[in-house]
């Protein structure tokens, strides 16, 4: 009988070791992302696009100032944990918000790997008027865009309200 008890000890130790490996593998963090989600809201002829980040960011500046086919927003990540620091120097795309009646956005990209950045870049399929503001929670930016009307495309001035 003592011989049988002794043979179970290595088996029990092997099972415990296996479960500890499984638990350790499960506890490893998944690759984190800089961008959280993107939401849009129609407001008359304007669309409010909220880009959420997975950590606080501060809006610094944007270029061009009022309109264009590309919008580059310079941001400053705040309070980034040591585990998240490698991700702020990366590059990732955000899902395009579901606004089929509007459809002006071609791409939204976080560019942490560009000199002078990091940047959040919007590409539009047409010249468009826009403004940028800091979100109230410091975890988001709000981009307000307005499609240029036909008289402005024919040589008129800036997009109204920008």
Keywords:
43% strand, 8-stranded antiparallel sheet, alpha+beta, single chain, 8 strands, 3 helices, 162 residues, disordered C terminus, Immunoglobulin-like
Please give a structural write-up:
The longest helix is centred in the N-terminal third of the chain and has 26 residues, at 2-27. Strands 1, 2, 3, 4, 5, 6, 7 and 8 form an eight-stranded antiparallel β-sheet that branches. With 162 residues, this protein is α+β, with helices and mostly antiparallel strands. It has one domain (35-153): Immunoglobulin-like, CATH 2.60.40. The protein has three helices and eight strands; from the N terminus they run αββββαββββα. A hairpin with a 3-residue loop joins β3 and β4 (67-77). The chain has helices at 2-27, 85-88, 150-153; strands spanning 35-43, 46-53, 57-63, 67-77, 91-93, 105-111, 119-134, 140-147.
